[in-house]
Design brief:
By secondary structure, the protein is an alpha/beta fold. The protein is built from nine helices and five strands. The protein has a five-stranded mixed sheet. Helix 8 links the parallel strand 4 and strand 5. Helix 1 runs parallel beside helix 3, helix 1 packs antiparallel against helix 4 and helix 3 crosses helix 4. It is elongated.
């Protein structure tokens, strides 16, 4: 077998292995909301359909432009686009390109050496092949360390003292719990499909809000997918919230907290439980507002959702 063919075979298998790895990671993080099997089916379907189509397109273009290993080049480009697609939220296109180049270089080097491609080549090519393999292997080790490490915090904990520190306050620790016993309740529409805490057992039933006048351009298949997931459209947004409050006669001040915008299937309103427990023990009524249904989906992010967030917060008040 010619050395070039051995290297091409190594590139193919390395690209395929990288795509499968990216598909698993993408499926684990895509969070469509319909279950892990739906996530895996989606990721592998995109790979199985998208990469061959891109390979054929690139093969046709390269046929016109120049004579190259057309299907192989198309497969590599398709792999790159797929990796960029499944990682676009976290890393971006350039990381996918670097990853694919490194893995294909490693695959070519391993295939060339394992299949006897170095025996009939010159010294210079042997040195280049072995050097590429060592660099690619080292890059994989560095990548694994990067993906599994907790990061570096030296800069975060370094303090530059340019003068005398202020005097220490003689005051109670604000992180300590207060004197009140904490009680909780949930309020909402009472029929939430995804959030059982906002189902029939809610202490206070609320009336859904019609936010469709704010989102007139949000329609079509994007609105359909979102409605299929949540069980309601933008014309029936629920007023959901979880409340921590002090067990006492009051009156108590009210604090409303609303989460940020991220993947809509990762519910985050419960993340403020620590703050609700603390503040209510100190004499505050604390409500963590649920607006996860306005968060971003995989391919659909309602425009003007910031306006709706603010309006809904007033309705919670």
């Amino acid at each position: 077998m010619p050395p070039d063919r051995r290297a091409s075979r190594g590139v193919f298998w390395a690209a395929l292995a990288t795509v499968l790895w990216a598909a698993v990671i993408g499926a684990w993080n895509v969070r469509l909301g319909f279950g892990i099997w739906a996530d895996f089916l989606f990721a592998f379907a995109v790979a199985a359909i998208g990469i061959p189509l891109v390979a054929l397109l690139v093969a046709l273009l390269l046929t016109i432009l120049r004579r190259l290993p057309r299907l192989l080049s198309g497969f590599v480009v398709g792999s790159l686009l797929f990796i960029a697609l499944v990682w676009f939220r976290s890393f971006g296109l350039w990381v996918g390109a670097v990853l694919l180049i490194v893995e294909c270089s490693l695959g070519a080097a391993i295939a060339t050496m394992a299949l006897g491609g170095l025996h009939n080549t010159g010294l210079a090519k042997r040195i280049v092949t072995i050097s590429v393999g060592i660099l690619a292997l080292g890059s994989n080790i560095a990548l694994w360390h990067f993906l599994t490490s907790d990061g570096v915090d030296e800069e975060l904990i370094r303090i530059t003292n340019t003068g005398a520190l202020p005097a220490r306050l003689d005051a109670p620790d604000p992180a300590q719990r207060g004197v009140y016993r904490v009680k909780t309740l949930y309020y909402g529409a009472g029929n939430d499909l995804r959030r059982p805490e906002y189902g029939r057992s809610v202490a206070i039933r609320t009336t859904p809000l019609d936010a469709s006048p704010f989102l007139k351009e949000f329609d079509g298949w994007k609105a359909y997918v979102r409605r299929l997931y949540w069980g309601f459209g933008m014309n029936r947004l629920p007023l959901n919230g979880r409340v921590w409050y002090p067990d006492g006669p009051g009156p108590f001040p009210l604090v409303l907290m609303v989460h940020g915008n991220h993947v809509m299937s990762e519910f985050s309103d419960a993340g403020y439980a620590y703050l609700g427990e603390l503040l209510s023990s100190r004499g505050f009524i604390f409500a963590s507002v649920d607006e996860n249904f306005l968060n971003s989906g995989l391919f659909h992010d309602p425009s003007k959702q910031q306006v709706v967030r603010g309006w809904m917060l007033l309705e919670h008040l």
